[in-house]
Amino acid sequence: MNSKKTKTPLLKEKYKILFVSSELHPFAKTGGLGDVSNSLPKALKALHQDIIVLIPAYPFAIKKAESIKCIAKIDLPIKGFPGHLGLPVIEGKTNSVSIMETKLPGSHVKVWMIESELYNRSGTPYFDADGMEWEDNDFRFALLNYVAVEIAMGRTSLKWQPDIVHGNDWQAGLVGVLLEHEHSTKKNMRPATVFTIHNMAHMGVFSRERFDALELNPHLWNHHELEFHDDFSFIKGGLVFSDRVNTVSPSYAKEIQSEEFGYGLSGLLSYRSERLSGILNGIDMKEWNPAKDTMIKKNYSIKTLANKASNKSALQKHFNLPKRKNTLLLGMVARLVYQKGVDLLLESMDDILDLPFQIVILGSGDLELESRLRQWVNRYPEKIQIQLGYDESLSHLIEAGADAFLMPSRFEPCGLNQLYSLRYGTIPIVRKTGGLADTVTHASEENLADNTATGVVFHEAEGSTLIDAINLTSLLYQNKDVWKKLMINGMKQEFSWKESAKQYLKLYGQAIKDRNKFKKHTSVTL
Ligand code: ADP
Ligand code: GLC
Does residue 1 sit within a domain? Predict the structure, then answer.
């Protein structure tokens, strides 16, 4: 479709958007949230929106930022979090942070980073060097929310006040809570709030003691608002108070309203279902483009598919696997956690490694899962290899070099790697859940016949069904024509952000209308 034609009606709405996130690729990324925080704002900018991304100024983020400068100091209306946890307590005075400004590389999207002692440490955004969660993550991310609210209410010297505050995941769950309790006059209405759930499994749950220390309004301590089974939850705040809530695929938006995926909040999510929607993530088509990717061995496209083979041999070389052109090479890049179905893979490993496949895995996470994977590597080093840790360029080479990509997730709000796989002609093997169900079409005879098949989809979260799926993949691989067809079908899919970004614009418009209608939450039985 001609993009000029579709742009016109949208240009009527130009919003000022503050996008609040704990991750932002390439400054700070542990998973898909980092990717989305980068590519969605860029897509919104391309739709002429005035968008600024707000993240903590982690030292590793500052290091990667070019032409970064301090543009403001913000005083916060809090006494200060306990001194021993970072911020100095100066009785009777407010605390303050600095705002550092930079740009998202290769774009005109402004990034504001909050400089504070609470962020000034190495490790990851959430964990220390030993993989333990920072003990004060509630303070660290509450600070992100408090700063967002000062900007949102125009109480800074920044001379910029958003129409929309778009919070992401539990780390930004308090923005809606704090803004709802701001006194809004017609002259200074609070911005509308949108809250995106990237993962219901992480809820930001902390104790009553910490609730008090965070200087939250004591009236919020009740079952209808922040209290959650004698503790309180940041994500619940986002769900109860935001004008609009969305998640990252239509299927996951439905799933989280069920007990199995709602983590104790399915009642609240069903209650708010009229304000809850699913918008599929897109991908950065420039960064993930096999025809131009500088991190892979040889570029290729649908017209030069044969070049993909050079990436396969480079990948086998990287992992010290025997160079076998015709052996099915399965790749996996993931946080090694229960969500990703690593245990299903481990359960079926004996059977899988009996077959003539090779497997390469890049990831890190649960120490027990890591060590169980390592045991398999020790037993079958010529068949399975893993690299523990985070490696952006290897993740690109795996997408380009593997024949098929494993994503046996137990649940998957959207998933980006299956989208990268489709674009790289690497057949995704996925479980039918969340965004995986919404983006991969099973290679049934019928779907192959009408050229809609793009991958292998299995249903039950069991080792045996995963083995069946891998066996089917192997059968398909043996028929070179069918395999090529599958690759091309996938590579032709359209997963750019353009359409999804337009849906976000619509959501922002709805949030503004809802904000104007005022209070959305009354009593709710959970
Ligand atoms: P999730 O956000 O649940 O981890 P997604 O599929 O949405 O899953 O996104 C994961 C993102 O993180 C992808 O860009 C993937 O390539 C990347 N990733 C995950 N683990 C690693 C790793 N060990 N090294 C490099 N990239 C990784
Ligand atoms: C989460 C989800 C993943 C999703 C990503 C970006 O981490 O686990 O499925 O793709 O966020 O939205």
Answer: no
Residue 334 Cα to ligand 1 midpoint, Å, equals: 5
Ligand nearest to the CA of 420: 1
Ligand 2 atom showing the smallest separation from residue 35 Cα:
6
Shared domain for 420 and 462, answered yes or no, is yes
Peptide bond into 56 cis (omega under 30): no
Q: How far is the CA of 142 from the centre of ligand 2 (A)?
A: 22
Angle subtended at Cα 23 by Cα 167 and Cα 437, rounded to the nearest 5 degrees: 75
Find the 413 Cα to ligand 2 centroid distance in Å. 6
| One domain for residues 469 and 343 | yes
Same-domain check for residues 208 and 353: no
Does the beta carbon of 32 sit less than 6 angstroms from any atom of ligand 1? yes
In the chain, the number of structural domains is 2
- The residue segments making up the domain with residue 171 are 16-282+499-523
Tell which residue, 283, 244, 329, has the closest CA to residue 439.
283
CATH of the domain at 380: 3.40.50.2000
pLDDT at 46 over 70: yes
C-beta of 246 in contact with ligand 2 (< 6 A)? no
User: Which protein residue's CA is at the shortest distance from atom 14 of ligand 1?
Assistant: 32
Q: Is 462 left (phi over 0), alpha (psi -120 to 50) or beta?
A: beta
Query: Do 70 and 136 sit in the same domain of this protein?
Result: yes
pTM of the model: 0.94
Could you report the per-residue pLDDT of 299-357, keeping only the tens digit for each?
Answer: 999 999 999 999 999 999 999 999 999 999 999 999 999 999 999 999 999 999 998 99
Query: Which tokens is 521 given?
Result: 């939450």
